[in-house]
């Protein structure tokens, strides 16, 4: 468990609304793939993607494109870092904390594709393993609607 993180459910509605707006509306690729936050807690986040025709791979009818899986996992890893940073700085206003995310960027990403992305919708989960002053490390999961693990990933993000 990370230090300096607030208990579950302690984010203000203003912070949650602002983070959802950044993640779901202001990041164009997230908007295109329909990535939606379903749970936002300091220690773990979850999101959902609904299958739609434009997300299917070119040569794989009914299978989610691997690039969508990779980008989705990268996005939720970054979102988990945002939540952890927000929790670390609870002494600041929600607006001040939301300004901290402009310098966040992926510096390393590894995805393991375990099973094909077949289904009507998918759940993505991420948690921060370590939040340092300059780099954060995350672990992510991409699950089928029935909870079966389809892909997993790890990533590092620059936070300063």
Could you give the topology of this structure?
Blueprint: H1 13-26, H2 28-33, E1 36-40, E2 45-50, H3 66-88, H4 94-98, E3 105-113, E4 121-131, E5 135-144, E6 149-158
Antiparallel strand pairs: 1-2, 2-4, 3-6, 4-5, 5-6
Describe what this molecule looks like in 3D.
It is a single chain. The protein is built from four helices and six strands. The protein has a six-stranded antiparallel β-sheet. A hairpin with a 4-residue loop joins strand 5 and strand 6. The N terminus is likely disordered.
Brief write-up:
The protein has 160 residues and is an alpha+beta fold. It has helices at 13-26, 28-33, 66-88, 94-98; strands at 36-40, 45-50, 105-113, 121-131, 135-144, 149-158.
Q: What is the number of independent domains?
A: 1
- What is the N-to-C order of secondary-structure elements (H for helix, E for strand)? HHEEHHEEEE
CATH superfamily caption: Hotdog Thioesterase
Shape designation: globular
GO molecular function: fatty acyl-CoA hydrolase activity
Domain Thioesterase: 62-149
Pfam families: 4HBT (PF03061)
Keywords: Hydrolase
Q: What key phrases describe this protein's structure?
A:
alpha+beta, six-stranded antiparallel sheet, 4 helices, Thiol Ester Dehydrase, Chain A, 160 residues, single chain, disordered N terminus, 30% helix, Thioestr_dom
């Amino acid at each position: 468990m990370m230090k300096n993180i607030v208990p579950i459910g302690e984010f203000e509605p203003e912070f949650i609304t602002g983070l959802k707006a950044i993640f779901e509306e202001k990041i164009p690729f997230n908007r295109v793939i329909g990535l939606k936050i379903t749970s936002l807690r300091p220690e773990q986040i979850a999101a959902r993607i609904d299958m739609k025709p434009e997300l299917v791979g070119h040569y794989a009818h009914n299978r989610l494109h691997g690039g969508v899986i990779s980008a989705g996992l990268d996005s939720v890893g970054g979102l988990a870092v945002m939540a952890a940073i927000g929790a670390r700085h609870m002494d600041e206003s929600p607006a001040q904390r939301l300004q901290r995310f402009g310098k966040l960027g992926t510096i390393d990403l590894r995805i393991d594709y375990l099973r094909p992305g077949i289904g009507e919708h998918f759940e993505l989960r991420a948690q921060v393993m370590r939040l340092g002053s300059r780099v954060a490390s995350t672990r992510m999961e991409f699950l089928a609607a029935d909870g079966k693990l389809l892909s997993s990933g790890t990533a590092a993000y620059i936070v300063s």
